[in-house]
Design brief:
One of its GO terms (biological process) is phosphate ion transmembrane transport. InterPro entries: AAA+_ATPase (IPR003593), ABC_transporter-like_ATP-bd (IPR003439), ABC_transporter-like_CS (IPR017871), P-loop_NTPase (IPR027417), PstB-like (IPR005670). Keywords: ATP-binding, Nucleotide-binding, Translocase, Transport. With about 290 residues, the chain is an alpha/beta fold. It is built from ten helices and twelve strands. Helix content is about 30%, strand content about 25%. The strands form two sheets. A ten-stranded mixed beta sheet has the order 7-6-3-4-12-11-5-10-9-8, with helices on both faces. A two-stranded antiparallel sheet has the order 1-2. It starts with 5 loop residues before the first strand and ends in a 5-residue tail after the last helix. The structure holds adenosine-5'-triphosphate. The site of adenosine-5'-triphosphate (ATP) has 14 residues, from strand 4 and helix 1.
């Protein structure tokens, strides 16, 4: 008899029962992991002579939300930027180790970083609409891809704004400036802009840190919805947010090495329920219980 293993999780998202704390499914059977999207191994990042983060190894799985948490300066954003080669654009940044994307080396010489960033989109901390209309903000990446009939462009803009849970609020003012929207709406506009080109992955660097609690709740709901379609990796300072939305959580910290040089490193990576209920490392426990950081 076929058994439906789809459950609604504590985070309210309907998905395969992949991420219970012990890795079992709804019936307590071990289950296969969703496909691996990123396989990061032994990642080191330096900025000039500054070692930002070292020895990071983790895997990100398809259509899951993976949260990167930890105190300021431990390298969360640095690691996030390695996942779509944004660090290529940071002067002095040097990345070593391996980042495989669906098994392919993301840093191989033949890989086009522009194509990487099309497939792996990024949403930033501060909403950053372009000084253009709402419509043109969303259409921007589509226009860069090449000419399309107006009707197709209209459809794709509507699809992206609907996907970003913003269509109903803006459908009658698409020609108005993106700056005329509230902060939370601007962030959803930036999410619409990112998803308009139909990426496979969304990287989000503290996407709610500039938003009030109501706008934050809307963006969190949106993330849960988007995770039905996209793989999401989010950097957040907000531990409740990581606990609410993510399937897996990576805890980073910054500490001195044997030479007294401070750098970030990954302490623990596991399913979110486990990180927040029964972490393996004392440093994780101290951080999530608020004793440190
Ligand atoms: N462009 C840069 N040039 C030089 N050093 C940098 C650069 N970006 C980050 N760093 C350094 O790398 C280390 C990690 O920074 P990163 O921003 O990745 O940490 P983070 O955990 O995301 O911090 P926060 O939570 O404060 O955003 C820090 O010591 C930081 O000062």
């Amino acid at each position: 008899m076929a058994v439906d293993l789809t459950v609604t999780t504590a985070r309210g998202r309907t998905k395969p029962a992949s991420v219970t704390a012990d890795g079992s499914d709804a019936l307590g059977e071990p289950r296969p992991l969703p496909p691996t999207v990123f396989d990061v191994s032994d990642l080191f990042v330096t900025y000039g002579s500054h070692r930002a983060v070292r020895e990071v190894s983790l895997t990100v799985h398809e259509r899951e939300i993976t949260a990167l948490i930890g105190p300021s300066g431990c390298g969360k954003s640095t690691v996030l930027r390695c996942l779509n080669r944004m660090n290529d654009q940071v002067p002095g940044a040097r990345v070593t180790g391996k980042v495989a994307y669906y098994g392919e080396d993301l840093y191989a010489p033949q890989v086009d970083p522009i194509e990487v960033r099309r497939r792996i989109g990024m949403v930033f901390q501060k909403p950053n609409p372009f000084p253009k209309s709402i419509y043109e903000n969303v259409a921007y990446g589509l226009r860069v891809e090449g000419r399309r009939p107006k009707s197709e462009l209209d459809d794709r803009v509507e699809e992206a704004l609907t996907g970003a849970a913003l269509w109903d609020e803006v459908k009658d003012k698409l020609k108005e400036s993106g700056f005329a929207l509230s902060g939370g709406q601007q962030q959803r506009l930036c999410i619409a802009r990112a998803i308009a080109v139909r990426p496979e992955v969304l990287l989000m660097d503290e996407p709610c840190s500039a938003l009030d609690p109501i706008a934050t709740a809307k963006v969190e709901d949106l993330m849960l919805k988007l995770a039905d379609e996209f793989t999401i990796v989010i950097v957040t300072h907000n531990m409740q947010q990581a606990a609410r939305v993510s399937d897996r959580t990576a805890f980073f910290t910054a500490e001195n090495d044997s030479e007294g040089v401070r750098h970030g490193r990954l302490v623990e990576y596991d399913v979110t329920d486990k990180i927040f209920s029964n972490p393996a490392d004392r440093r994780t426990e101290d951080y999530i219980s608020g004793r440190f950081g």
